[in-house]
Design a protein that fits this description.
This protein is an alpha/beta fold. Helices cover 34% and strands 23% of the residues. The chain is built from 14 helices and 17 strands. The strands form four sheets. It has a seven-stranded mixed beta sheet with strand order 5-4-13-14-15-12-16, with helices on both faces. Helix 2 packs parallel to helix 12 (317-334) and helix 3 packs parallel to helix 12. The longest helix is centred in the C-terminal third of the chain and has 30 residues, at 338-367. The radius of gyration is 21 Å and the shape is globular.
Length: 390
């Protein structure tokens, strides 16, 4: 390891899975970095649902991070179960929980647990919490700089935007903005489901459930700690999430309005809405243009959603972000010349992201076709040939 690489000032904006993986793999290679995160702490907001980590992306990133063995006992292999239902709740397709040796190595892990694993592997002080980035620029010396909300200016040799869909770093590289996909989610949570909501727990199973009909869907995902996260998915104008049925001050009225969207659906499926606890949160789904890329700007790059935001219908977002972080760290560790390192990373990342974004966009269309159940049953049958009950 050259002294030059050890002395680089690497600033990472965003402490999501991608940014933390980048910081961890750099640390493994003896390269310090600083992560600037808007959140006040690791627990200041809900971290979201569960992730299935692919062997060739998320797990590979954890291998480079030296955390794969620590990950396994924290994960839930049984979360690989999949149920595909119609609006009558009849099971149209079922992938049972994976068994040892069946080749289905995509164990689930809650986002919160994954974040704790990554944070616990970093030197104290690597993440600087509560640091809002007010501006980014290329300074007079040709180096990227951050200006924080308190007026502090930070100069870096490498600036990495790992700051998600509405990245503050991306405008240094690209004028692309996320575009609304035409689909919105509303998500809610059920707690202690095996005791308090046993019928819902049985309907969903140990992994994920998708119920599809009438160009809309009810999706449910088993999380750790006896929780099920529910997503109401509809095609709607972008303003629907702001002025539609969601009233953050009146969850009961919101549930009633959402139930009105599914009047003739099975009551067991409707219970996914009726039984939710706490707030129902609108999530309009946005995406960057498929194949988004940029010309090299010295010392600046992006990873994860900041680079290739896509809809969740390929299940690739966090996996790609972690792989981006690992591969960027490896490139920085391998090359004394920064531009050689960043070019090597982007050359591999761009086509990989484009392929996943294309798949995601195609799947979004499939999920909201009038005959979505048949389309997806055929697709899942092809993907899991020999491993599903039909």
């Amino acid at each position: 390891m050259s002294t030059q690489r050890r002395q680089r000032r690497i600033a990472i904006v965003g402490a999501g899975p991608g940014g933390l993986t980048l910081a961890r793999v750099l640390h493994v290679h003896g390269i310090p970095s600083t992560v600037y995160e808007l959140d006040a702490s690791a627990t200041s907001r809900d971290q979201g649902g569960t992730l299935d980590l692919d062997e060739e992306s998320g797990q590979r990133a954890l291998l480079h991070a030296g955390l794969l063995e620590e990950f396994r006992p924290l994960s839930r292999p049984e979360g690989g179960e999949l149920r595909l239902l119609g609006k009558d709740a009849d099971v149209g397709f079922h992938v049972p929980p994976p068994q040892d040796g069946d080749g289905n190595d995509r164990p689930e892990i809650d986002r919160r647990v994954l974040k704790e694993l990554l944070l616990g592997s970093l030197p104290e002080g690597t993440v600087r919490w509560g640091q809002k980035v007010r501006a980014v620029a290329i300074g007079a010396a040709g180096r990227p700089t951050l200006t924080l909300a308190d007026g502090t200016t930070v100069a870096a040799d490498v600036l990495v935007g790992a700051d998600g869909a509405w990245s503050r770093v991306r405008p240094l590289l690209s004028d692309a903005d996320p575009v609304y996909t035409g689909v919105s989610f509303v998500d809610g949570l059920l707690n202690d489901v095996d005791t308090r909501h046993p019928a819902v727990a049985e309907l969903v199973g140990r992994g994920s459930m998708f119920a599809l009909a009438d160009e809309k869907g009810l999706f449910a995902q088993r999380n750790g700690g006896g929780r099920i996260r529910v997503y109401v998915a509809v095609k709607a104008p972008e303003e629907w999430s702001r002025s539609g049925p969601i009233d953050p001050t009146d969850p009961a009225a919101t549930r009633k309005r959402l139930l009105d969207l599914f009047p003739d659906w099975d009551e067991g499926l409707r219970a996914l809405i009726a039984d939710t606890e706490g707030p129902l949160v609108p999530r309009p789904i946005h995406a960057l243009p498929t194949g988004h890329r940029w010309d090299r700007v010295p010392g600046v790059t992006l990873l994860g959603d900041a680079a290739h935001l896509m809809s969740p219908f390929a299940g690739a977002g966090a996996n790609l972000a972690m792989l981006d972080g690992a591969e960027l760290a490896l490139a920085l560790a391998a090359h004394d010349d920064l531009e050689t390192a960043l070019n090597a990373y982007e050359t591999a990342m761009f086509p990989r992201a484009e392929a996943a974004a294309t798949q995601s966009a195609d799947h979004l269309v499939d999920f909201f076709q009038p005959d979505a159940l048949r389309i997806l049953r055929d697709a899942f049958t092809t993907m899991t040939a020999g491993g599903a009950d039909r």
